[in-house]
Amino acid sequence: MKKIIVCLVIMMLSTWSIGQIQTPVPSPAASVSTVVGLTDVKVNYSRPKAKGRKIFGAGKDFVVPYGEIWRTGANRGTIINFADDVKVEGIAVKKGEYLIFTVPNSSDWTIMLYSDISLGGNTDKYDTTKQAAKFSVKPERLTERVETFTINISDVADNHTSAKVQLAWENTSVKFTVAVEFEERVMKSIEVNTKVAPGNYISAANYYFDNGKDLKKALEWIDLGISTGNKEAFWNIHTKAKIQKALGDKKGAIATATQSLELAKKAPSDFGYIKLNEELISSLK
After folding, report:
1. pLDDT band per the 50, 70, 90 thresholds, residue 229
2. Distance CA 228, CA 199 (A)
3. Mean per-residue pLDDT, 49-72
């Protein structure tokens, strides 16, 4: 009889494990990521819904009461990952994974990055000695209601040195800045890859010109790139003319832009460089 009972229990457990019904979870998992400069920044989190509830405010009638630590999401909390060392609101943070904890208030939010991700969403056991960063940011009121808690990585700077992580729910938004360093890596890449392929001098020159760096070095590199590559690449010659203009060499810039213009006119497609060169020459007269 015992053997029969054991067999029945095993069969029931087996049937239960195989035949589980899948249904949508109340706070679905989500992730958001982007590359800031040369650094991958990724956030994994769970997204609770408002469901008619009051979210942020003073007192126990709110889902997230002011002045109380919040796991910043649902389930096991929110994890942010930095592929390289970064600065978060000016605070140096080593590469790796961190939990995001927050303390909302009406006029400011305190945000903490926590180094021990095994804590999950258990705020009762928060240990300040494992706090990698702590800072305050100002909340903003949203004009459109956000029903489901949302995290975005936005506002990437034109020079790629920073981005903002946004937390948004109900009618509240807060953002904090993640800043990155990549200059040393870029310079090393230029040094190594121009030796391997001299054509990379073009990319190096463009990087220096676009980011307002040493223009004399940019001119040196664009000359090397043109001389070791396609000498009729009018788009590269046009870049040289722009560098010469930025250096104050109007005569040289006109001559170079004219050369680019004549080559563009002979090409099956000028990709808009006839007009670009004509405008550049006109701006120099």
Report:
1. confident
2. 7
3. 96
> Is the pTM value of this prediction over 0.85?
no
Q: 263: which 2 tokens?
A: 């080559």
Pick the closest to residue 151 from 133, 163, 138, 136 (CA basis): 163
Cα(269)–Cα(153) distance, integer angstroms: 38
52 dihedral zone (left: phi>0; alpha: psi -120 to 50; beta):
left
Question: Which pLDDT band holds residue 198 (cuts at 50, 70, 90)?
Answer: confident
Backbone angles phi, psi at 50, to 5 degrees: -70, -45
Q: Are residues 174 and 247 in the same domain?
A: no
Between CA 113 and CA 140 the distance in angstroms is 21
Residues 29 and 169 in one domain: yes
The pLDDT assigned to 196 comes to 75
- Residue 7: what are its φ and ψ, rounded to 5°? -60, -40
Structure tokens at 261: 């213009």
Encoding tokens for residue 247? Answer: 């250096």
Token reading at 1: 């009889």
User: Cα–Cα distances in Å, from 110 out to 52, 60, 89, 194?
Assistant: 26, 19, 12, 46
Q: Which domain holds residue 200?
A: 183-283
* CATH code of 257's domain: 1.25.40.10
Q: What is residue 21's predicted lDDT score, i.e. its pLDDT? A: 77
44, 108: one domain: yes
Cα–Cα distance, 260 to 236 (Å, whole number):
8
- Based on the structure, what is the number of domains in the chain? 2
